[in-house]
Amino acid sequence: MVESSTHHQTRGRDVAAEEALRRRKIAHEMRAAREKLTSSTGLERSFDYELLRLFAQYRIGAALPLFGLAAAVAALAGLWVPLEPVLIWLGQAVATTGLPVALAHRFLRQEESSVSLPRWRRIFILSELLQGAGWAPIVLLLVKTDTPVVYGFVLFVTLMVAAVTATLSATVRLAVYAGIAPLALALVFAVASAAQRMDTLLLALMSVSAQLFFVLLAHRLYSSAVATLHSRAEKDALFAELEQAKANSDEARRRAEEANLAKSRFLATMSHELRTPLNAILGFSEVMKNEVFGPHASPSYKDYSGDIHASGQHLLTLINEILDLSRIEAGRYELNEEALRLSHVVEDARHMLNLRAKAKNQTVKEVVDPSLPRLWADERAVRQIVLNILSNAIKFTPQGGEITIKVGWTGSGGQYVSVRDNGPGIPDEEIPVVMSSFGRGSWALKTAEQGSGLGLPIVKGLVDLHGGTFQLKSKPREGTEAIVTFPASRVMDALPPVDDIRAA
C-alpha cells in the first residue's frame, strides 16, 4: 500500500514536470511567433537587436582604418587632381564616415528594451547611403583625368570601399545596397560621359562585377550571422533547460531525503510500537496453544491459539524484514565481520529448515568442497542470506521435489553458495519483479505460501555490502537457481599474512 501510494505520487510529480515543460515550450514558441509577426525582417526581436548591435560594433571598430583609407586616397588623388577639390572631398568623406560611428555609439548607449529597432534600422541604412555618397565624388574626379594609371586606381578605390561596406554592413542587408549604390551610380555616370573610351567601359564592367560579388558575399555573411544567433539561442535555451532540470532534481532529491527521513522515523517508532504488543500476543498465544494452565473447554480454542501465534510470528518476521531492508537501503546496516566457514553456515541453515522440507517430502542434497578456507564476513548476514534463498526454494518446490545446495570455489578465487530446485521456475520477464521490494511472481501469487516479497531484495542488499554478486537463473518448468558469490578478497587465505612480533 505504501509502495503503491509512493509510486502514484512519483508518477504524479513526473506528469506535472512534463506538463510544466510542455507549457514553457508552448509559451516560448508563441512568444517567438509573435515577435516574428511584428518584426520587419521575419526574425525574433532579440535577433534583430543583436544584428543591429553587431553593425554598430563593426562600424565603431572600423572607424580609424576608414579615416586612414580616406586620407591615403586623398593623398594619391592629389597627384592627378587639383588639391582644393581633393580636400573638399576628404572633408566630406570624413564627415560621412564619422556619422555612422557617432550613431553607433548612441545606439549602444541605449537600453535594449527602449530601442525602436525599425527606426534605428532606417537610420543606419540612411547613414550608409550618405557614406557611399560621400565616397562617390572621388570616382568622378579621377575619371575626368586623361592619365591611364588613374583607371587602375579608381578600380582599387571602388573595390576597397565595396569590400569594406559589404563586410561591415552585412548584418543589415539594405545597408549594403545603400552603401554600394552611390559608387555604382558614379561609375555609370562616368561611363555615360565617356562612352567612346574602351578603358572606361572595362573599368566600369570590372568594378560593377566586383560590387555584385561583394553583395553576394554580404548575403552569405548575413546568413552566417543569423545561423550563429540561432545556434547561440538554442544553446542558451539548452542551458536554461539544464538549469531548470538541475533545480527540479535538487528539489526532488530534497523531497526524497525528507521522505526517507520520515520513513526512517516512522519505522523506528512503529517497530517499537508493534513489537511491544506482539511480544504479549506471541507469549500468551503460546501459553494458550500449549495449554500450560490446563486443557481448553473446547478443542477449537487450541487451534485458534495456534493460528494467533502463527499470525503473530508472520507479522514479527515481516516487521524485521522491513527494518532490515530499510537499514540496508539507508546504508546503516553495520557488518560485524569475523572469520567463518561458509559450509558450517549452510549446514546450520539446512538443519533449521529441515523440518519444513520433510513436511513436503522434499530431498535436500549438499555438495560442499572440503578444501574451502574461512571467509571474512558477517555471520548473521551470511546466515540470513542462506536462510532466505533456501526457504524460497523449499516454499516454491512442489511435494517430493529436490533441492541441491552447492558450496565451492569461483573462477576468480572467491567462494559461492548455490541453491537449485526443480520447482515451476520463473519467466525471464518476472525476474526483475521478484528482485524488487514487495515483488512476487505469478507462481507466488497462485500458491498459498505468500511471503512479503522482501527476501530476495534483502539477500541482494547484504551480498552487495560484502562486495559480492547475487544472480538468479530460472526457466519455467525446469527450476530456479540462486547463486551468491563472495569476492576473493574475503577469503582468508587470500589475505596478506600478519607478522607475529612476539614470535620474532
Automatic annotation (TrEMBL):
GO terms for molecular function: phosphorelay sensor kinase activity. The chain crosses the membrane at residues 60-80, 86-103, 123-143, 149-168, 175-195, 201-222. It catalyses: ATP + protein L-histidine = ADP + protein N-phospho-L-histidine. Keywords: Coiled coil, Kinase, Membrane, Phosphoprotein, Transferase, Transmembrane, Transmembrane helix, Two-component regulatory system. CDD domains: HATPase, HisKA. It holds the Pfam family HisKA. This is histidine kinase. It is an enzyme of class 2 (transferase). Its EC number is 2.7.13.3. Residues 269-490 form the Histidine kinase domain. Residues 235-262 form a coiled coil. InterPro entries: HATPase_C_sf, HATPase_dom, His_kinase_dom, HisK_dim/P_dom, HisK_dim/P_sf, Sensor_HK_Regulatory, Sig_transdc_His_kin-like_C.
